[in-house]
Design a protein that fits this description.
By secondary structure, this protein is α+β, with helices and mostly antiparallel strands. The chain has three helices and four strands, in the order ββααββα. A four-stranded antiparallel beta sheet has the order 1-2-4-3. The radius of gyration is 12 Å and the shape is globular.
Length: 78
Amino acid sequence: MEKGTIMNTDKNPETQFTNIGGAAKILAVHPNTIRNMIYTNALPAYNYGTRCIRIRIDDVVKVLHRMDLNGNINREQI
């Protein structure tokens, strides 16, 4: 799969997932910022195996709405 691609799951075709690169493109941040958000539980993610991490597009959009103009996340809304 290419970096930054969006995929559908077979179980629920309306739920879309992306990888770290795709989430970084949506939020206009570095992929390491996405990894830090996952590590601090600011962004939920799902592991499939040891290296495959998927993030729901809906969760990325929620984080986008909590960000201010400087890219800081409002932690009170988490």
